[in-house]
Automatic annotation (TrEMBL), chain A:
UniProt record, GO biological process: potassium ion transport
A Pfam cross-reference name: KhtT_N
Species: Dactylosporangium siamense
InterPro entries associated with the record: AAE_transporter, KhtT, KhtT-like_N, RCK_C, RCK_C_sf
Domain RCK C-terminal: 73-159
Protein name per the record: Potassium transporter TrkA
Superkingdom assignment: Bacteria
Automatic annotation (TrEMBL), chain B:
Subcellular location(s) of the protein: Membrane
Protein source organism: Dactylosporangium siamense
Protein name (record): Potassium transporter
Domain of life of the organism encoding this protein: Bacteria
Pfam families per record: Na_H_Exchanger
Gene Ontology biological process terms from the UniProt entry: proton transmembrane transport
PANTHER family: CONSERVED INTEGRAL MEMBRANE TRANSPORT PROTEIN-RELATED, SODIUM/HYDROGEN EXCHANGER FAMILY/TRKA DOMAIN PROTEIN
């Protein structure tokens, strides 16, 4: 990726990024803290077609959104790199032998090697649930482990 | 009785300037030509001549020039200036030669003598960095590739002013060749001394001025600036240059705070300065010089367009950008009037003041308008030209 830095005497600096597809995006950093987000013309790389002025606060927000998206991608990438590890989401169906029993009763880790890392219920996430956590029909369970391990948990939850 | 009228006059003048400023915002043009017109109206031979407040306005005008140059100096840091001088000297010299030439030629053709020629060269040369910076911001041109070229030309011009103003002051003082050389040496020594202090010991100056209290900071900065300006004037260096150099010496967060504190003061006194220049100009003297002013303005447009074209081409910018660079450089404003003010105060040719006023009036208004129209016109031309080739 190519980033061009230019001084703008009396105003600040400008950074221009040329993307892989050949589009140019610039950021003019004013000394006052103001930032201009600049998009260049497709045909004429000298000319900016849009220039949006952002306050210090607004530019932080934009940077954060661009940045967080990158972090999520980064995590997904990492996960893909750890071969053999799978994340599965399983539902406790009504009539499951564990509906109304605790997490500890499943003994999932001892029996399958996979871990239950979170339970989603009614829109809230219960991360790292303890063994005395009560399970109910409709709970969404996040399991991490080998493919065989997570499959084992699935069978365990339906058949006991 | 006397004091009653002074307050009424001052209040009326400042209020009128405020209304004109609002008008300029409405039509997004520079307020400078309007302030000049107000000065013309308030001066001798105008529609509403002032009687009692001229003395105050003349002192205010001097402070206005000092603050204009001080805040300009604040915009730059010393390393930035030295860096620009190195990188943009060729383009800067083209700018200087092309744009000073029409003024010098006009003064010589009109038979005003060599000193007036030096002053006229300065008047046609300098672009208004204030108006141009505003045009660049308003039109969203700050990200364009030619913009660094335009900005470094402005820096170069401002640096040239630091050398030019003392020379002009010395020449206007009517010193002979030998005396002139001595004054120039003193001026050069003073500028080098202040620049050295700014480059090497800027921190010490900053520590001396720094204060947590805005009030203390304002008083210290203003006091230091006016004092250095006064000393510089005593040494024939021109007060404006002294103030410019103090501005350069301050940098970083301190410069930022100082700029915020002094900008309202600068706006007030700079407006007073433009009015004062208008005051000194008799509106009846304008019509006779209007023709020359229009010719000079045309020459000024052509020479700045050529400068922008050449400078942008050196930086590898395409046709549209080259035209934009030239158009951005068109506006003339504060410094042209500062130079003319010095020349008028020293009593050069009586027509120089009105000519400079008319010249700045034309270009301060036409410049930003031309900048707005330049890009669409070039695109239209390029499309017309490319059509037969593609079909």
């Amino acid at each position: 990726m190519n980033v061009e830095r230019t001084d703008l005497p009396g105003i600040g600096t400008s950074h221009v990024v040329t993307t892989a597809r050949g589009r140019r995006i610039g950021i003019v950093s004013h000394r006052s803290g103001r930032r201009d987000l600049v998009i260049y013309d497709k045909e004429d790389p000298d000319t900016s077609v849009v220039s949006v002025a952002l306050s210090a606060e607004e530019s932080n927000a934009v940077a954060e959104y661009l940045g967080t998206a990158r972090i999520v991608e980064h995590l997904a990438e990492l996960q893909r790199q750890v071969t053999g590890l799978v994340t599965e989401q399983l539902v406790i169906a009504p009539g499951s032998p564990y509906d109304g029993r605790t997490l500890g009763d499943t003994a999932a880790r001892t029996r399958t090697g996979a871990s239950i890392v979170a339970v989603l219920r009614g829109g809230t996430v219960h991360a790292s649930p303890r063994p005395d956590f009560g399970l109910h029909a409709g709970d969404l369970i996040v399991v991490v482990g080998t493919a065989a391990g997570t499959e084992g948990v699935a069978t365990l939850l339906t058949d006991g | 009785m006397h004091h009653d009228t002074i307050l009424i006059e001052l209040g009326a003048v400042i209020l009128a300037l405020g209304l004109l400023g609002a008008l300029s915002l409405r039509f997004s043009i520079s307020p400078i030509p309007l302030y000049l017109l107000a000065g013309l109206a308030f001066g001798a031979g105008g529609v509403l001549p002032l009687t009692t407040s001229t003395e105050f306005i003349s002192a205010g005008a001097e402070i206005g020039v000092i603050l204009l140059l001080f805040t300009l100096g604040l915009e730059y840091t010393a390393p930035e200036l030295v860096g620009t001088l190195r990188s943009s000297a060729p383009a800067g010299l083209i700018d200087l030669v092309l744009n000073a030439a029409p003024g010098v030629a006009a003064a010589l053709i009109l038979g005003w003598g060599p000193v007036a020629a030096v002053a006229m060269g300065g008047i046609t040369y300098v672009t208004s960095s204030g108006i141009t910076a505003k045009v660049l911001g308003d039109l969203g041109w700050l990200g364009n590739r030619e913009t660094p070229v335009v900005l470094s030309l402005l820096v170069f011009e401002d640096l040239m002013m630091a050398l030019y103003l003392p020379i002009l002051t010395a020449l206007l003082a009517g010193v002979g060749l030998l005396g002139g050389a001595a004054t120039l040496a003193v001026a050069a020594a003073t500028i080098s001394a202040i620049l050295l202090v700014a480059l090497r010991y800027g921190r010490i100056v900053e520590r001396f001025v720094a204060s947590d209290s805005d009030e203390v900071l304002l008083l210290k900065v203003l006091g230091l600036t006016v004092l250095v300006a006064g000393v510089a004037e005593l040494l024939q260096v021109s007060a404006a240059v002294g103030a410019f150099l103090v501005g350069i010496a301050l940098s970083g967060p301190l410069a930022h705070t100082a700029r915020e504190l002094l900008t309202p003061l600068r706006d007030l006194f700079a407006a007073v300065f433009f009015v004062f220049f208008g005051l000194q100009t008799d509106p009846r003297a304008l019509p006779p010089v209007l023709g020359v002013a229009a010719l000079l303005a045309l020459a000024g447009i052509a020479s700045k367009m050529a400068t922008g074209w050449l400078a942008a081409r050196r930086a590898g910018v395409a046709i549209t950008g080259r035209v934009r660079a030239g158009a951005a450089l068109l506006p003339r404003g504060e410094f042209n009037i500062v130079i003319a003010g010095l020349a008028v105060a020293a009593g050069t040719n009586a027509k120089l003041g009105p000519l400079a006023a008319a010249y700045v009036l034309i270009l301060a208004v036409a410049g930003p308008l031309a900048a707005r129209g330049a890009e669409p016109l070039v695109r239209l031309y390029l499309r017309r030209r490319s059509k037969p080739a593609t079909t």
